[in-house]
């Protein structure tokens, strides 16, 4: 392949990789085109290039746990005699195991990272439009509707973390770093507009970890401290701009009557509280929505009662986690079957063992309890390995990486840590958007670091 054609080839691959986060975040059918082209390219590279296969061998622990996840899912479905529709999303891992081959090529990673930051800026703009111009309380992006707000927030915060890593280590010119900074801020603010507590809580320790790694490598502790103060101050100011725009700020909600529903009935939309504009707001209702939402966590936890009071986002999670624990204890070896938590929960409701508030849910809003309930001990072990093995792989590279390897290894640490923490309060793999973002990024970055290590070893031999 002559130099000009090779340059075009690498540029095209780089642009396709840069487009992938955007393709995960939209619902248009054309979004499958970048993934299809990368699949064809990756398959060709694997079949024709021994160097690509060597990169896979070096990254074998990450690929092994991903393959194990696919295998166990298939065996679980077969053992429980479930329909193979449940295998649809897990099978996408096989796709990303092949597309990862393009990361073995010397991609123009500056293009890739810039594409990620531009995507964060664009999606942040969508959130601003939805919240302030369309009057939507919780922005949800372009894929998944309002039920996808949490997963969308998680992807936005992953893009924000990638922007922060670029801001720390990128050696580009000022305009390039400014674009990454804007992407980092847009991702954070867009996630705030979703009002999703779990991803935002997970984001804080991950960002602190990245700041700690940066300070340790550069010894610029004062600079990091000033940056942290600026982030906290800016975040507090930004949080104050988030309001429940669909309800007049001077209105006071009157408590709605409590209703009892059976699990077999379709869950009705919660009754809209009556509002009285003439009544002055109480201290709670006039507080910023962020303060109120986080304050609600403690009150819901203390007032939770499985029999009498299990409604509300936090109480329903507690009830689902309680039920998932029962599923695991009752079926410790193989679980109740992939995607069968909802069926089990409704059975428990019908038998009087669970509150009817959770009958509408298909997943328990905790990735670890989902794995334990539906897959038993093996399923729980697989999900722990899905996070632990890549995290160890990226952390090892981050601790010993030279300047060229610190960006991909730090991004890998950030992505895995973010998903592992988000998994404590939500299911991070049951929708295509976050599922694809994780496996595409983790497998690709593993191959990229492997290729960089092999190239360095070959250079030392010369």
Q: What's the short story on this structure?
A:
The chain is mainly α and 462 residues long. The protein is 69% helix and 0% strand.
List keywords for this structure.
single chain; 462 residues; mainly alpha; 2 domains
Description:
Helices cover 69% and strands 0% of the residues. The chain has 17 helices and no strands. The longest helix is centred in the C-terminal third of the chain and has 34 residues, at 367-400. The chain folds into two domains: 3-243 and 367-461, no CATH class; 287-358, no CATH class. Helix 6 runs parallel beside helix 8, helix 7 packs antiparallel against helix 8 (174-194) and helix 16 (403-422) runs antiparallel to helix 17 (432-461). Mean pLDDT is 88; it is low at 248-286. It is globular.
Low-confidence stretches: 248-286
Largest sheet: number of strands, sense, barrel closure: none
Q: Termini separation (Å)?
A: 24 Å
What Rg is obtained from the alpha carbons, in whole angstroms? Answer: 23 Å
Q: Count the strands?
A: 0
Percent helix range: 55-70%
Order of helices and strands: HHHHHHHHHHHHHHHHH
Domain module count: 2
Q: Helix/strand/pairing class, anyone?
A: mainly alpha
Q: What's the quaternary structure here?
A: single chain
